From TrEMBL:
Pfam families, per the entry: DinB_2
Name of the protein this chain belongs to: DinB superfamily protein
Residues covered by the DinB-like domain: 37-166
Organism: Algoriphagus zhangzhouensis
Matches recorded under InterPro entries: DinB-like, DinB/YfiT-like
Domain of life: Bacteria
Amino acid sequence: MNTFLTPNKGDYPAFYSTYLDLITDTDYCELIDSQVQELKDLFAEKPEDWENQPYQEGKWSPKEVLGHVIDTERIMTFRALCFARGERSSLPGFDQDPYVLNARFGSVEIDLLLEDFAAQRKALVTMIKTLREDVLDNEGTANGSPITPRALFWIIPGHFIHHLNILKERYS
């Protein structure tokens, strides 16, 4: 596998610092794997039906948060693949709220969502292992801003940490 260092500032829009600043572990594969187990442990320790209860009116349930994380990781991975392969077209943004609403994650069994998350993470790691080092810094445009595959890949675990912290702090 390539060295897979964290991205440099300027390789991504500044608002992604919210996620990237949460990352303290620089062993990417270990971080990705540990997050799968951390998520499974969190859901396992919660009382029955916890995953269906938003912490307040108008907020997502824990299942919807998980579904949002999965969707976002797929989109970030797709963007990274496109730019690693030399895509020059600008890729669109996405509005997370209709994605969650239309997915109807509340009707999906939590075990299936957790399995889907683990499978997405496995696919992410195996894809990264196939990439050459020199394509990780190809710049592309997504949602109107320049970004590299390296940055997109590292945003994924940071975005996860952000939402895991919310699940731990607000969904008690």
